[in-house]
From TrEMBL:
Pfam families: DUF4148
Keywords tagged on the record: Signal
Name recorded for this polypeptide: DUF4148 domain-containing protein
Gene source species: Pararobbsia silviterrae
Signal sequence residues: 1-32
Chain segments carrying region Disordered: 50-98
Superkingdom in the source lineage: Bacteria
Length: 98
């Protein structure tokens, strides 16, 4: 039978291991969701402009004209969209489709 100090040590090691695994999981998740670079944003904007979106123009149809340009870019790239407008089949956040 284990002594109380051995049980306490085992519990401490177990808790430390669990905490370490959780920390690594969070770090990997954060790394996978890196913010897009400036070059990626510029490329995304260029694709939207090619699809007819003009960001400098003050438009009363602002959200819909941007959405229409996004849909054109998605269609050009072979990406479908679901009812709420979320892209389906797009690469992970932070990547740009060409």
């Amino acid at each position: 039978m284990s002594s109380p100090s051995e049980q306490t040590m085992k519990q401490t090691l177990f808790r430390t291991g669990v905490a370490l695994m959780m920390t690594c999981g969070f770090a990997l998740q954060a790394q996978a969701q890196e913010a897009p670079t400036r070059a990626q944003r510029v490329a995304e904007l260029a694709n939207l402009e090619q699809a007819g979106y003009n960001p400098t123009e003050s438009s009363p149809a602002y959200p819909s004209d941007l959405s229409a340009a996004e849909q054109k870019v998605a269609a050009r790239n072979g990406v479908t969209r679901v009812a709420d407008g979320a892209p389906v089949g797009t690469p992970p956040s932070g990547t740009v489709q060409r």
